[in-house]
């Protein structure tokens, strides 16, 4: 006669299932946060930085034009001290404009490179999300069914062996 199974710790499986659910919840939150950050960064590049640096180029171009006009006036007035100040102002304005132009180039570069550099990595996060939701969801369901089956099995009463029947007297 086969020996009876000894189920000693359904609680350990239940604890593992609970820990797995907590892990899945945290992991899904992190993966969702990564996906949102990827979207926010792309939007930031497209909407915010592009318009910001285009506006800065316009503003800094006006500042440069104003500084050049003041330099021209200083040259006409032969004011050497003011002339040096205006030359410094023109240099600063040119540097500021060059900086804005470099930022526009950098922003355009990253807008072109973003799909090739970032999105393949973001796809890995999407695959991980799928694994967490689908495969790990199936694992949780399997653990739930295992726990239910073990609980049902543990509640079964062992069959009582009937004493052998006495031979009938003839």
Can you walk through the features of this model?
Helix 1 runs antiparallel to helix 2 and helix 1 runs antiparallel to helix 3. The chain is built from three helices and no strands. With 170 residues, the protein is mainly alpha-helical. It is rod-shaped and about 140 Å long. The mean pLDDT is 87. The chain has a single domain (10-152), classed as Orthogonal Bundle (Helix Hairpins), CATH 1.10.287. Helices cover 84% and strands 0% of the residues.
Short summary:
This protein is mainly α and 170 residues long. Helices cover 84% and strands 0% of the residues.
Separation, N- and C-terminal Cα atoms: 32 Å
Radius of gyration: 38 Å
Low-confidence stretches: none
Largest sheet: none
Assigned CATH architecture? Orthogonal Bundle
Mean pLDDT: 87
Structural class: mainly alpha
Task: List the main descriptive attributes of the protein structure presented here.
170 residues, Helix Hairpins, 3 helices, rod-shaped
Topology of this protein?
Elements: H1 10-77, H2 80-117, H3 119-155
Helix pairs in contact: 1-2, 1-3
């Amino acid at each position: 006669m086969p020996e009876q199974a000894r189920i000693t710790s359904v609680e350990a499986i239940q604890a593992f299932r609970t820990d797995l659910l907590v892990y899945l919840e945290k992991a899904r939150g992190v993966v969702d946060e990564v996906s949102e950050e990827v979207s926010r960064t792309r939007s930031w590049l497209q909407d915010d930085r592009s318009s910001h640096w285009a506006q800065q180029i316009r503003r800094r171009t006006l500042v440069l034009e104003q500084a050049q006009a003041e330099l021209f006036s200083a040259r006409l007035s032969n004011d050497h001290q003011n002339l040096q100040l205006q030359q410094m102002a023109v240099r600063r304005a040119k540097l500021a404009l060059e900086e804005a132009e470099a930022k526009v180039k950098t922003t355009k570069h990253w807008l072109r490179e973003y799909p090739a550099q970032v999105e393949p990595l973001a796809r890995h996060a999407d695959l991980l999300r799928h694994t967490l939701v689908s495969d790990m969801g199936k694992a949780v369901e399997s653990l739930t069914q295992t726990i239910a089956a073990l609980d049902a099995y543990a509640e079964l009463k062992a069959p009582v062996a009937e004493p052998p029947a006495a031979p009938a007297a003839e």
